[in-house]
TrEMBL record, chain A:
Oligomeric complex. One of its GO terms (biological process) is intracellular protein transport. It is found in: Cytoplasm; Golgi apparatus membrane; Cytoplasmic vesicle, COPI-coated vesicle membrane. Residues 817-929 form the Coatomer subunit gamma C-terminal domain. The keyword Protein transport applies. This is Coatomer subunit gamma. Residues 666-814 form the Coatomer gamma subunit appendage Ig-like subdomain domain. GO terms for cellular component: COPI vesicle coat; endoplasmic reticulum; endoplasmic reticulum-Golgi intermediate compartment; Golgi membrane. Residues 20-559 form the Clathrin/coatomer adaptor adaptin-like N-terminal domain. SUPFAM superfamilies: ARM repeat, Clathrin adaptor appendage domain, Subdomain of clathrin and coatomer appendage domain. The gene is TPHA0P01180. Gene3D superfamilies: Coatomer, gamma subunit, appendage domain (2.60.40.1480), Leucine-rich Repeat Variant (1.25.10.10), TATA-Binding Protein (3.30.310.10).
Automatic annotation (TrEMBL), chain B:
One of its GO terms (molecular function) is GTPase activity. It comes from Tetrapisispora phaffii (strain ATCC 24235 / CBS 4417 / NBRC 1672 / NRRL Y-8282 / UCD 70-5) (Yeast). InterPro entries: P-loop_NTPase, Small_GTP-bd, Small_GTPase_ARF, Small_GTPase_ARF/SAR. GTP binds at G25, L26, D27, G28, A29, G30, K31, T32, G71, N127, K128, Q129, D130. It is found in: Golgi apparatus. This is ADP-ribosylation factor-like protein 1. Keywords: ER-Golgi transport, Golgi apparatus, GTP-binding, Lipoprotein, Magnesium, Metal-binding, Myristate, Nucleotide-binding, Protein transport, Transport. SMART domains: ARF (SM00177), RAB (SM00175), SAR (SM00178). Pfam families: Arf.
Length: 930, 183
């Protein structure tokens, strides 16, 4: 046998993970050997732990076998082996149910083991104890808590903490001992001193004790208050984590009862200058997050000092501290960017920080706090920077820039040049390039001035682009926008190159794109050459390419210009949700093996402007949501929520928005499927859902207003929240608010026959109206017969007459806004100036209402789309200008609004200025914006 | 020279090897009490064993690795996890617990069927002899059907762990058998 051996995995540096099966086999043989070789077993366990820590898992049978062979190591008295055994028991407890077999052995070490293994034994107790055995450990845990040895005391406190969900009563019985452990400063025992080295206690026991104590008292506000007072004033807490914990308790208290904040203000102020960075971070977090929702209660000085503290933390050497400070600043940048402007110099110098997490965060914050003034200089900074970072960071930066382009459309040139530069010169994978292209597509669609420059550069890019998906998207964009530019033939050349050089997927896309140029009004000579190009392509070896070319030729050469335009440059798409539901109805109702062709005219069409409006709205909502999220994550007890606020900004449409869209199309579908409404014709517009009762009422009612050409239908959605009562003949009576001047004529209503508990149903009330815009308010009353339900059958008792009842719900108003669809324009100011009819109205609201609330209300009431990022109030400012755009759902007439909002001590004053192609529409809308 | 001789001698007698001995039996039979009687020679206060206790002791120049497993119904299924490489089983019976003699017998025979225990010697302690009304060793033997056991060295010894009677006698017999058969 050789005395020199070398094992690959024994060298500490090797980053490779040991092989799972080898380790398993080694464990099985080594651990079952007699006598046990303690040292070898310990090394083996450490390898096993490394595997587990890296996320490797063993199947249950193997995990069980491992556990039992490890349990046999209890026969060996070696302390370090014991420690390793305890660690592995804790790890394996997740996989194997059998860890309870270690109970007696653990208990024995807790009582009689050396100080060294005692704490490990105590810590592993938490994985073996259950409800029935927990109480038997009470005495052991209690005496360990009061141990003078800090590691033993800590172990017991931590174990007790983990025991809480299993047996809170056991732990409660030593809450006095726990309280004492907070203030008891425990140094390491003298006999542990080895040589000259004397470890300084960090007094971490304080943190563990405080953490446990908080869990025991968290539901009792008074004792928490007492606790804070007791530990904050005296200088008892030496441990920094304990201090952080105490701050978290303060946060918890003020979040629950904001009025408490002023009394803690002095304390927080004091903590801001604490010597520990972690304490400073935690305090600034509490102050800034609290201020996000309770600005009035935080003194401006305190807030300013908090920001200054963050500012100074940006210059400390410790990376984690810098990073934590940046995270807080990032949240602030979304809520109140103006307040952290003083940090800009520090942030700018962090752009070159060697830690990329830090530098990227710094950049994204700068981009968010950016103002018109510094955008271009910021962009030139990141232009230098972006080529040096990894793809992940590049993507974050690109996304931030993309938001910028929405917020500062007038800065499009700098942004566009930046994007083009990184697109052409930047190294990066698909995701990165795709994000750039998406950002460019955004700019092209929302900032019309940028179109030609962007398209030309994209043309250059596709001459040398390796990604099919991106190429296809760009080809589509070129086909859509190219024919309307000043020089369409420029694009034709690039597109044709694709047809010659690329694979069939790209060729297919290029055919479609190319065909659109045939109808270009800007350059009518193109038609002939495109037809001849397409004829050549009609011989392509690929089926799809050929088919597309043939179809395109058919349409182009068709004499009916309307048809060619409709199919080649169609100005609308179908609403996919509506298409899906109509299609599935068609498939399900198939009674004549699809003899009747599918009728697409029932599907809602979306014009390009509407689609853009929808998309912009979605983007705005995303931004808005991420702001709210930023506030929420701030307030959520200051805990570490795994959020990355900047990532949330681009998470795609949140499910909540999808839901509201789905809901709208569901209501529309339901309505259209009702026989009585068929004669009314097409649904022109549906309002948002308005609630007509308190959400916690017995009957929850909300309303939707549907506009048709000569009719209005009110839909009342009613939820029966009672447990054991059914509602029969549920109807809504609508009485005009001003009966003498009633305009709408009620035709009929459709009641609900029976509404069972916890179900929702809809009552419809239909009115006849003239073709114009009609506005009117109605008082509403819910009428129904209640019947008690037989719990056995869930049916009313036989012969139960029930008794009639009514329930008043809120009024419903048909407003001018209900006749408006939101719509998008690229250059609001020009359009506004050009519209002919002007109307002005002035409002004074004598309520205590924030500027943002006013803005939100106006957007809902007018159904218009806010443009140029004016949907957000600036946090500090008391005035605001809101720009809105929409179209009449009846006639398509454009309307643009500028609303100036000023808040003073007396209330809020509004001046609304509207311009429209139709004077009446303009006046109507202006007079009902709030 | 003397060193060499003694180490050869040791190997001959297998001193370096540790002998694994299991103490099994129903809950409350006195297993844990017997273990510590053997190790420290005293009566300790015990709690029902959840899992096992393991102690190493030297006995007549031999190193014994003695495993005392819990006897509660919920723990008995785990006994088999500790059978491998076992030299001997000490089965402890509470001689006053007449109601559960059948259970004890069933568990004993079930265990002895295991492949891994084919070569293990068996020592039965008819424990708690100090109590009035305890069955005698031969009565326990009958209850447990020990005569049925073939191909195995076994013995039953009347014992009282509390008084310390019978324990060493039993162990002496066991060690002799192991030395004869296995070393
Ligand atoms: N009178 C008497 N009592 C005994 C004797 N041996 C054990 N006991 C008692 O019996 C009880 C149970 O003893 P343990 O040694 O804990 O029993 P065990 O077999 O280990 O039980 P489990 O761990 O549950 O399987 C204790 O109260 C002992 O004091 C004995 O020889 N005579
Ligand atoms: Mg026991």
């Amino acid at each position: 046998m050789s005395t020199h051996t070398y094992k690959k995995f024994e060298s500490g540096d090797s980053g490779d993970l040991p092989d799972k099966m080898t380790i398993y086999q080694d464990c099985m043989t080594q651990f079952n050997e007699s006598p046990v070789n303690a040292k070898r077993c310990r090394i083996l366990i450490s390898r096993l732990l490394r595997l587990l820590a890296n996320g490797e898992v063993f199947p249950e049978t193997e995990a069980t076998a491992l556990f039992f062979s490890i349990s046999k190591l209890f026969q060996h008295p070696n302390d370090s082996l014991r420690q390793a055994v305890y660690l592995s028991i804790k790890e394996l407890s997740g996989i194997s149910e059998d860890v309870l077999m270690a109970t007696s052995s653990i208990m024995k070490d807790v009582q009689n083991g050396s100080d060294l293994v005692k704490s490990n034994a105590i810590r592993s107790l938490s994985v073996v104890l259950d409800e029935s055995t927990a109480f038997s450990a009470e005495r052991m845990l209690k005496s360990a808590v009061v141990s003078k040895n800090p590691t033993i005391s800590s172990a017991s406190l931590v174990t007790s903490y983990h025991l809480l969900p299993i047996s809170e009563n056991t732990v409660k019985r030593f809450s006095n001992e726990t309280q004492e452990a907070v203030v008891d400063l425990k140094p390491f025992p003298q006999q542990d001193i080895i040589g000259d080295y004397y470890p300084n206690s960090t007094f971490i026991t304080q943190y563990h004790a405080l953490g446990l104590l908080y869990q025991l008292k968290k539901n009792d506000k008074m004792s928490l208050l007492k606790l804070v007072r007791q530990f904050a004033d005296s200088n008892n807490l030496k441990n920094q984590l304990a201090k952080v914990q105490l701050i978290k308790i303060v946060n918890e208290l003020v979040q629950r009862d904001p009025q408490l904040f002023p009394q803690f203000q002095g304390l927080l102020y004091h903590w801001l200058s604490n010597k520990y960075e972690s304490v400073q971070i935690e305090v600034t977090k509490v102050i800034t997050s609290f201020a996000a929702t309770n600005q009035r209660l935080v003194s401006p000085e305190l807030f300013a000092v908090a920001v200054q503290t963050l500012q100074s933390l940006l210059t400390v050497p410790r990376v984690t501290t810098k990073f934590a400070a940046l995270r807080i600043l990032n949240r602030l940048s979304m809520v109140s960017p103006d307040k952290i402007l003083i940090c800009n110099p520090e942030l700018e110098s962090l752009i070159n920080d060697s830690n990329r997490n830090v530098s990227t965060y710094a950049i994204t914050i700068l981009l968010k706090t950016g103002t018109e003034k510094n955008i271009s200089s910021l962009i030139s900074t990141i232009t230098k920077f972006i080529h040096e970072v990894s793809d992940d960071f590049k993507i974050i930066i690109i996304d931030a820039v993309r938001t910028l382009s929405l917020n500062f459309p007038q800065e499009w040139k700098a942004i566009l040049n930046f994007l083009i530069d990184v697109l052409k010169n930047g190294e990066g994978g698909f995701k990165f390039k795709n994000n750039i292209v998406e950002a460019l597509i955004d700019i092209v669609s929302f900032v019309p001035q940028s179109k030609e420059l962007a398209l030309e550069n994209l043309c250059d890019f596709i001459e040398d682009c390796e990604f099919n998906e991106i190429l296809v998207r760009i080809l589509h964009l070129l086909g859509k926008e190219g024919p309307f530019t000043s020089n369409p033939s420029l694009y034709v050349r690039h597109i044709y190159n694709r047809l010659v050089l690329e694979n069939s997927i790209i060729r297919s896309a290029a055919v479609v794109s190319l065909s659109k140029f045939a109808l270009s009004k800007k350059d009518t000579s193109l038609r002939k050459s495109i037809v001849s190009l397409l004829k050549r392509i009609a011989n392509d070896p690929d089926d799809e390419v050929r088919d597309r070319a043939v179809i395109a030729l058919q349409f182009i050469e068709n004499s009916n210009e309307r048809i060619s335009e409709e199919f080649i440059q169609s100005k609308y798409t179908y609403d996919f949700q509506s298409l899906e539901s109509v299609l599935s109805v068609y498939m399900n109702n198939n009674s004549d093996s699809f003899e009747t062709p599918f009728d697409v005219s029932n599907v809602r069409k979306i014009t390009e402007d509407e689609a853009k409006a929808l998309e912009l709205k979605r983007k705005q909502d995303q931004l808005h949501n991420s702001r709210l999220e930023a506030i929420e994550t701030c307030t959520a007890d200051g805990s570490i929520n795994n959020e990355r606020a900047d990532a949330a900004t681009y998470a795609g449409p949140s499910s909540a928005e999808d839901q509201s869209e789905l809901l709208a199309s569901k209501y529309a579908d339901e309505l259209l499927s009702i026989e009585e409404f068929k004669p009314f014709g097409k649904l022109i517009n549906s309002s948002n859902v308005v609630s007509l009762t308190e959400p916690e009422a017995e009957f929850v009612v909300n309303g939707v207003k549907h506009i048709l050409k000569e009719h209005v239908i009110f839909q009342f959605n009613i939820t029966n929240t009672l447990n054991d009562v059914a509602l029969d003949n549920v109807a809504v009576t609508c009485t005009p608010e001003d009966p003498d001047n009633a305009i709408l004529e009620e035709l009929f209503s459709i009641p609900i026959d029976r509404l069972l508990p916890s179900t929702e149903g809809a009552v419809y009330v239909a009115f006849k109206k003239s073709e114009e815009i009609v506005m009117e308010g109605f008082l509403n009353n819910l009428t129904f017969t209640t019947k008690e339900l037989n719990p056995e059958t869930n049916e009313p008792f036989e012969g139960d007459e029930g008794f009639e009842d009514e329930y008043e719900i809120d009024s419903i108003f048909l407003n001018a806004g209900d006749y408006i669809k939101n719509s998008f324009v690229g250059d609001f100011t020009t359009v506004f100036d050009e519209l002919p009819n002007e109307e002005v109205a002035v409002y004074n609201i004598q309520e205590n209402i924030t500027v943002q609330e006013v803005i939100d209300k106006i957007i809902v009431n007018t159904s218009c789309l806010p443009l140029e990022n004016t949907q957000f109030a600036q946090s500090e400012s008391n005035s605001h200008i809101l720009k809105l755009f929409g179209k009449s759902a009846l006639t398509g007439v454009k309307i643009a609004l500028i609303v100036r909002i000023v808040k003073s001590s007396k209330g809020v004053a509004l001046k609304a200025q509207g311009k429209s192609e139709n004077a009446t529409l303009c006046a109507d809308l202006i007079n009902s914006i709030i | 020279m003397g060193n060499l001789f003694s180490s050869m001698f040791d190997r001959l007698w297998g001193v370096n090897k540790e002998l694994r001995i299991l103490i099994l039996g129903l809950d409350g039979a006195g297993k844990t009490t017997i273990l510590y009687r053997l190790q420290i020679g005293e009566v300790v206060t015990t709690k029902p064993t959840i899992g096992f206790n393991v102690e190493t002791l030297s006995y007549k120049n031999l190193k014994l690795n003695v495993w005392d497993l819990g006897g509660q119904t919920s723990i008995r299924p785990y006994w088999r996890c500790y059978y491998a490489d076992t030299s001997a089983v000490i089965f402890v019976v509470d001689s006053t617990d007449k109601d559960r003699m059948a259970t004890a017998s069933k568990e004993l025979h079930l265990m002895l069927q295991e492949e891994e225990l084919q070569d293990a010697a068996l020592l039965v302690f008819a424990n708690k002899q100090d109590q009035v009304g305890a069955l005698s060793a031969s009565e326990v033997s009958k209850e447990l059907n020990l005569v049925e056991l073939k191909d195995r060295s076994w013995s039953i010894v009347a014992s009282s762990a509390i008084k310390g009677e019978g324990i060493t006698e039993g162990l002496d017999w066991l060690i002799d058998v192991i030395k004869e058969e296995q070393l």
